[in-house]
TrEMBL record:
This is Aspartate ammonia-lyase. Residues 18-348 form the Fumarate lyase N-terminal domain. The keyword Lyase applies. Residues 415-465 form the Fumarase C C-terminal domain. Keywords: Lyase. It comes from Microbacterium koreense. One of its GO terms (molecular function) is aspartate ammonia-lyase activity. It is an enzyme of class 4 (lyase).
Length: 495
């Protein structure tokens, strides 16, 4: 038998009127209105776990501060504290349902947090959800606060929490490249500048360079994160601290530092801090730097693995999936390609953040929701991209050692190592002959009686060619013009 009974609801009222709220919902009327108004992204704020956790941390710190300064009765403050802890521990995140894109400078997000934490607290007190006469989302959970200090502070705390997981993944990727650098330590290859053959190096040196650049980005991200740690709690609406006790700001900062574990500080000018979002722009820029440099590494991996027959073919990337619906056996570098696309998205998100920062007016920036969404998405995608690049690509890279050796052996670039001993002009003549004949540079040098076989082999050893072993002495360079002419004549005869 089918029941025609309507879903059970509770009635909630605000200054605009009344709405029916599902009886099981922990959110309330302010969240319901946001759902009606902002069905744009179809992505709730709960997709960013650390933002939800940070909102709960701010509410918990505020409850403790309000209790400490006597702005809230201990019973009510403790209920809010306990409810916020439930959210911090990962429960009720599905109740944070307002869209990531919203008008109102984040008011809907703040009200969603106020309502959910309040209704959790009401249940902890043995009361019905919606019993706001006993505990109010605005009068109690939002006491001494405004969206304009809660929301930017929560974004900063959430980014601080989220960043740590990104840094951990970045370091793992750096270590993966270091491991490959050690594995390829003695594998000689031809270096390239402007896509043209240059002097020799080792494949290990190339991969060590990748690791080093990722380590530099780890430091830049860490440095820029500290710009986020200046918060404006106690500023309320525009930075004047209206409706807030003077002791609240220092108290809430102390509790929030303790709860979050972040080295937060209170802004010295709350009016400026409430309107200025420059710290988000700087942090977003450092994310873009990391993304673009990672994308460049992926470009190099795709080039080095190109082929496998008609390309460079120096390294092999793990085969992850069939590469074509028409060409049997084709395998594409899909993992680096995916990371490239993440980098493009991060660069676009950085431009969005820049425009949103510029768009702020007077005492408030109304566009912090898109700032938050852009940066949280960049961190999330970057972390996942680094993970898949490490696990599904870098860890499984192998070197085509025979091909690399053959390319070095036939490369005219090795003659550069001999210029301190035979001079530039003779080296140029040798290079030209080697290109025309395809002969080995070492053989040509010995035949021209410029160096002995032992001397040539010593200078063209992998350690010397890659710079791992420095040259300590040089054979006198050919200086006389007639000597150079003689060499060129000999090589011309050979051709």
């Amino acid at each position: 038998m089918t029941s025609d009974a309507a879903p059970r609801t509770r009635t909630e009222t605000d200054s605009l009127g009344s709405l029916e709220i599902p009886v099981d919902a922990y959110w309330g009327i302010h969240t319901a209105r946001a759902l009606e108004n902002f069905g744009i992204s179809r992505r709730p704020i709960s997709v960013y776990r650390d933002l939800v956790v940070a909102l709960a941390m701010v509410k918990q710190a505020s409850a403790r501060a309000n209790k400490e300064i006597g702005a809230l009765p201990a019973e009510k403050a403790d209920l809010i504290d306990r409810a916020a802890q439930e959210v911090i521990e990962g429960r009720f995140h599905d109740q944070f349902i307002v869209g990531v894109i919203q008008g109102g400078a984040g008011t809907s997000t703040n009200m969603n947090a106020n309502e959910v934490i309040t209704n959790i607290a009401l249940e902890l007190a043995g009361r019905e959800k919606g019993d706001y006469a006993f505990l109010s989302p605005i009068d109690h959970t939002n006491r001494s606060q405004s969206t304009n200090d809660v929301y930017p502070t929560a974004i900063k705390v959430g980014l601080g929490l989220d960043l740590q997981s990104l840094l951990d993944e970045l370091d793992l990727l750096r270590r993966s490249f270091l491991a490959k650098a050690q594995e390829f330590h003695g594998v000689l290859k031809v270096g390239r500048t402007q896509l043209q053959d240059a002097v020799p190096m080792t494949l290990g040196q190339e991969f060590h360079g990748f690791a080093t650049t990722l380590g530099e980005d780890h430091r830049r991200l860490t440095e820029n994160a500290y710009l986020l740690y200046e918060v404006n709690m106690g500023a309320t609406a525009i930075g004047t601290g209206i409706t807030t006790h003077p002791a609240y700001g220092p108290a809430v900062l102390r509790h929030l530092r303790d709860i979050s574990g972040l080295d937060l500080d209170l802004a010295t000018d709350l009016v400026e801090s409430t309107s200025d979002t420059g710290a988000f722009m700087s942090f977003s820029s450092s994310l873009k730097r990391n993304a673009i440099k990672l994308s460049k590494i992926c470009n190099d991996l795709r080039l080095l693995s190109s082929g496998p027959q008609a390309g460079l073919g120096e390294i092999n990337l793990p085969a992850r999936q069939a590469g074509s619906s028409i060409m049997p056996g084709k395998v594409n570098p899909v993992i680096p390609e995916a990371v490239n696309q993440v980098a493009f998205a991060v660069a676009g998100a950085d431009l969005t953040v820049t425009m949103a920062v510029e768009g702020g007016q007077l005492q408030l920036n109304a566009f912090e929701p898109i700032i938050a969404h852009s940066i949280f998405q960049s961190i999330t995608w970057m972390r996942r991209a680094m993970h898949t690049l490490r696990v599904n690509c870098v860890d499984g890279i192998t070197a085509n050692r025979e091909r690399l050796g053959a390319m070095v052996g036939s490369s005219v670039g090795v003659v550069t190592a001999l210029t301190p001993f035979i001079g530039y002009a003779a080296s140029a003549a040798l290079a030209k002959t080697a290109l025309l004949t395809g002969r080995n540079i070492a053989d040509l040098v010995v035949e021209a009686d410029l160096m002995s076989r032992d001397e040539v082999e010593k200078q063209l050893s992998p350690a010397r060619l890659s710079g791992l072993e420095t040259v300590t002495a040089a054979i006198p360079v050919l200086q006389a013009a007639e000597d150079v002419v003689a060499v060129e004549d000999l090589l011309r005869d050979d051709v």
